[in-house]
Design goal:
2 domains, alpha/beta, 311 residues, Rossmann fold, 4-stranded parallel β-sheet, 14% strand
Length: 311
């Protein structure tokens, strides 16, 4: 259907460039009609399709055969596309290893829109707020926040965990909080919030957590939440996964061992105990994040479209 729709649109109006977003990678087929009429093609890869499949279906019958097919399709797509866009350098290196052409594979980061940032953080003192916002699924490791809070106990007065988002792990996390006797400290807001509103909710938090578990897909995940916390001046506790470490250092955010609630508890205690060092990390993280600004990435994106048009 996408192929037919794109072909019909291409007949009504000649497009300079057609941009296709994966997954799945075979959606690039939808660009055939406009491409035959002279349009350039851009394949925009935010996630590796074989890795996404493996995360959800690796134990299912036929998973190995499906993985081979997905890898062949991925290789075909990155070779055929005029330009391949992806969101960070680790993805770019991996895509080149999988068949993409280095001279046509370009990083345009999924940077934050600074216009959506709150004008100022809330002034009221609401205790020690540990926040997470976004999808709440098992592989994101959100349950670690509850386990860490239970381990900390009364060592941080006024500690509370705030979860903004919904997902198939939320009910289990709430049940776990009840079983640990800390349900009153875990505040969940599963209703849909637009980006501006959720950033207003998390602004002024004591620490934002990126708890991603060490899965095949998360190895390459660069959470936009991390950039948002940094832009808001929120100290960050972050799982020490390779792509996350490539973008920030120990002097900028506090890393903990991925999947280790006790090590997350250690990091939260460190944030609470040393506000001077915490403030220094926040300032350093903001300086680093300036390298990832949307203004720079927007210029790179426009250049990529121009290259696709001329390819």
């Amino acid at each position: 259907l996408a192929t037919l729709a794109a072909a019909q649109m291409g007949l009504r109006r000649r497009y300079a460039v057609v941009q296709v977003h994966n997954p799945p990678d075979f959606l690039l087929l939808a660009s055939i009609g406009p491409r035959l009429l002279g349009a350039g093609t851009v394949l925009d890869i935010h996630d590796l399709s074989p890795d996404m499949f493996a995360m959800r279906f690796a134990e299912r019958p036929g998973a190995r055969a499906a993985d081979r097919v997905l890898r062949l399709v991925e290789r075909w797509a990155v070779r055929v596309a005029g330009i391949v866009l992806t969101v960070h350098e680790p993805y770019r290196r991996e895509l080149i290893d999988r068949g993409a052409r280095g001279d046509r594979t370009i990083v345009v980061m999924n940077s934050i829109d600074e216009r959506l940032l709150p004008a100022e953080a809330p002034a009221e003192d609401a205790g020690f707020r540990v926040v997470y916002h976004g999808t709440i699924t098992p592989h994101y490791g959100v349950g670690l926040l509850v386990e860490a809070a239970a381990e900390i106990g009364d060592s941080i007065p006024g500690l509370r965990v705030e979860l903004y988002g919904a997902g198939d792990a939320l009910a289990d996390i709430q049940a776990r909080a009840r079983s640990l006797g800390i349900a009153a400290q875990v505040i969940a807001s599963p209703e849909f919030l637009d980006q501006r509103e959720v950033l207003e909710r998390v602004a002024g938090a004591s620490v934002g957590v990126i708890p991603n578990l060490p899965t095949r897909l998360n190895r390459y995940a660069l959470s936009t939440k991390l950039l948002e916390y940094v832009a808001l001046g929120i100290p960050v506790a972050c799982a020490g996964l390779p792509t996350l470490r490539e973008h920030f250092s120990d002097e900028e955010v506090l890393f903990f061992r991925p999947g280790d609630a006790s090590d997350l508890a250690r990091v939260l205690l460190e944030v609470a105990a040393d506000p001077v060092a915490t403030s220094a990390r926040v300032a350093a993280a903001r300086r680093r994040a300036a390298q990832y600004s949307w203004s720079d990435n927007a210029a790179r994106y426009v250049d990529a479209l121009d290259r696709a048009r001329r390819a």
